[in-house]
Structure formats: structure tokens, C-alpha cells
Amino acid sequence: MKKQMMGVMAAMAMVSLGAACSGDDTNRRDSNDAGDVGGDGGDVGDGGMVEDPAEEPGDLGQPCNFVCNLSSCVVEAEECEGGVCVYHQELGGSYCSRLCVESCAPGYTCQQTEDESGPACLSGAAACGNGQVEFGEVCDGQEGCAADCLSLEEPVEEPEVSGGTITMSLYGNAPETVSGDAPAVTAEYTQGRLFFSSSLNVMTFGMDLPEPGAAMPLDQFLEIGLVENVGGANCSYNAATTATISEYDHAGQTIAGDAAFTLFCQSGICGSECSPNIDVELEFELRWVELEE
Known about the structure:
- The protein is 7% helix and 38% strand.
- It is mainly β and 293 residues long.
- Keywords: Signal.
């Protein structure tokens, strides 16, 4: 008797499964009742959703795992933010979506599905370049989006670069100017001081920054060092002077000023090939970067 009962139940299960997988009317709901297909897409009550949500699901159009034998079906899907997965035969795949009342995200329309479990937001055919991300596209129109809309590269954050203009006259000669980003002009704030240099020579400058909001112009202590090779001998110079700061923007990290000073060759290091001193006139406009300590 038990074996006969089990055989009857198995036969009933086979009949039920066959009806669910067929394309006839037994696979369709008698009404547009979406009460069993809930999720976060909106309020679901007797007869369907009350209104469309203010925000669209973040995974709208992302592939999900569902197939049916009709042109379009919708099933509850916990893995989708909108609560449902739509099978869309025309587009050849299934994707996360949401139930709807009348409106959907750009590129999607609110349509009744053939299994009458909707209405749900169904994607239009992908059209790369229209600025709308449809099913099958990763992106469309945004920065870093590939020409075929199938991949997105996150923008690379370029490191901040220092730069500016430095003009110098040495030994009373005509002034020389260099402008541009580092290494043409380098200005770095580190360990509480601003250090700057240029590609004109290997002269380096170090100074404390003025107080933010300080009135201009003002005098600021400036230290200078220079090492140059003359006839195979290394000549080392240094100086300390006062620079006149004419412009200063602490928030914008810019500073400008000028100075005139004499570099003296360090005793015990300078040989006969080295000049005992070098007269220098300096003008600078800098954009500095702050280094992590």
C-alpha cells in the first residue's frame, strides 16, 4: 500500500513539473498579482506594488540565474537588490530588476511579463553610446568606459606635482629662467620646512613658511647650499639671507619672492679651482607639494 501511494505522489509531481515548464496557459498567473514576488523594489500588497521606488537597485541589469520557456518571466531572487530576476528571451539572458507600476530607470521600460508575474522593468536592447546602461553593458558614457561599453577602468588618481618658475643670475651674468613641473622646478614641504630647487643647477633652498594669512610683503629667513664640480674638484658653497615674500597662499600651496645674496665657498673644502664666492640674484614663484612624513 505504501509503495502504491509513493507511486501516485511521484506521478502527480511529474505532471505538476511538466505544466510549470510548458508554454501554455498553465504557466501564467490568472491576474497581475505580484504579492509573492517581493523584494526591495517597492511596496507589494494585494494586486501588486503601490508605487515605484525613489532609487533604482544598484545591480539593475546585472546577470542572475533564471531561465523559463516564455519570452519573459520574473521570479523572486534574494541575490538581487530589487528582489527579482527577469528572464528576457529577446535579449538572451536573465538580469536583476524590480517590479514596477509605471516608471523605470533610463533604458528600461515597465512591462508585463509573459508569465504575468510583473509588471517588471525590462531592458531595451543595448545601444552603446546613448548614455544609458542597458542589460549587457557595464557602462555607457561615463569616464573610463570602453568604446564597446563592456568594461570600465577606474580613473587613476594622478599624484600631485610641484612646479613653478625660478630665475637666477650668477656671477653678475644675465639671468636664466626655468619653468614647469618637477623636476624642472621642485618645491616640497617636509619636516616643517619648504625646500626648492631647479634644473638650472644643483643649488637648493630651504625656508620656513610664513604664518597663514600673514600680510605681504614680509621678510623670511632663507638658507642656500650649492655643490658644483669645477675642473674635477667639488666646490661646496652655502649662504643664509633674507628673502622678500611678495605673494603667499597657504591653502593653495603657492609662494613667490626674491632675494640677493653671496655664496661663500666652505673653508677646508674649496681648492684653487673654486671661486671663493658667488653673487646670486634670485626670483621664484612656486607651487609646492606636501610630503608624507
